[in-house]
From TrEMBL:
<dbReference type="InterPro" id="IPR029068">
    <property type="entry name" value="Glyas_Bleomycin-R_OHBP_Dase"/>
</dbReference>
<protein>
    <submittedName>
        <fullName>VOC family protein</fullName>
    </submittedName>
</protein>
<dbReference type="Pfam" id="PF00903">
    <property type="entry name" value="Glyoxalase"/>
</dbReference>
<dbReference type="InterPro" id="IPR052164">
    <property type="entry name" value="Anthracycline_SecMetBiosynth"/>
</dbReference>
<dbReference type="InterPro" id="IPR004360">
    <property type="entry name" value="Glyas_Fos-R_dOase_dom"/>
</dbReference>
<feature type="domain" description="VOC">
    <location>
        <begin position="142"/>
        <end position="260"/>
    </location>
</feature>
<dbReference type="InterPro" id="IPR037523">
    <property type="entry name" value="VOC_core"/>
</dbReference>
Length: 263
């Protein structure tokens, strides 16, 4: 979690990603093969591991806590959003009708965080790091880093208003999606963070899906399947000429990949 523990990022930026899963060893091997990540010990946090590229730490890995597993929490990816004041942001979320899984809590030497939910029940972290420097976990089209943050929700308008009010995100351009309405881009300080869309009635639950950049989408797709993952969509071309897939790992956590087609 050391990259997340940096306070150089502005309020509202994505600063870290975390996989909570039922099989940490299997997940380490799977993502190491698909994304080329190395796995390091998390150090200050017992039972916590870190996914890293050759030049940066990008995500964390941990087992689903026993109480959360007993409550039915599935394997999933979660995102951390930088907060100038974790306590104030958590209080604002609760006043707005959101929820709280973990109240503002200190991790000595790392920072202060809270695990919250938006109005549609989608989980996300907020964090204020304890160190100087800037996290590069979100770095569009940089291989191994997150390139796109996508929210699928039952109420796109309410979700956009919620995150705009808490984090200063801005409404960007939109692409029509037929009966699903618009695929609305979200901007922050001149950077496109990702997008929000209405969840299909027959689709998966409301959630954030994080797309990690790869150097060759076809090779990464093959490795996803060979490692026991399931590709639900793609490879499909997106504006700008890149290709994406939406997949789930062998434990069922959803994720996306984005990159060029070299063949």
């Amino acid at each position: 979690m050391s990259e997340a523990a940096k306070m150089g990022n502005a309020h509202g930026e994505f600063i870290w990603y975390e996989l909570v899963t039922s099989e940490t060893g299997a997940a380490s091997a799977f993502y190491g093969n698909v994304l080329g990540w190395a796995v390091r010990d998390g150090g200050a946090v017992p039972g916590y591991s870190i996914f890293a590229t050759a030049d940066a730490e990008v995500a964390g890995l941990m087992s689903i806590p026993p109480d959360a597993a007993a409550a039915g929490m599935p394997p999933q990816w979660l995102g951390y959003i930088a907060a100038e004041d974790v306590d104030a942001t958590a209080a604002e979320v609760l006043r707005a009708g959101g929820g709280q899984h973990v109240p503002p809590t200190d991790i000595p030497g790392i920072g202060r965080f809270a695990l919250l939910t938006d109005l549609q029940g989608v989980s996300f972290y907020v964090m204020r790091g304890a160190e100087e420097g800037e996290s590069t976990a979100f770095a569009p089209m940089r291989p191994g880093h997150c390139s796109w943050n996508e929210l699928s929700t039952t109420d796109q308008v309410a979700a956009l208003d919620f995150y705009q009010a808490r984090f200063g995100w801005e409404k960007g351009d939109a692409m029509p999606m037929g009966e699903q309405g618009e695929y609305r881009f979200i901007n922050h300080r001149g950077v496109v963070l990702g997008a929000m869309m209405t969840r299909p009635p027959s689709g998966p639950r409301s959630r954030w899906t994080f797309y990690f950049a790869v150097e060759d989408i076809d090779t990464a797709t093959e490795r996803t399947r060979a490692g026991g993952g399931t590709v639900h969509y793609g490879p499909a071309e997106v504006p700008g000429g890149a290709f994406i897939i939406v997949a789930s790992d062998p434990q069922g956590a959803a994720f996306g990949l984005v990159g060029p087609r070299k063949a």
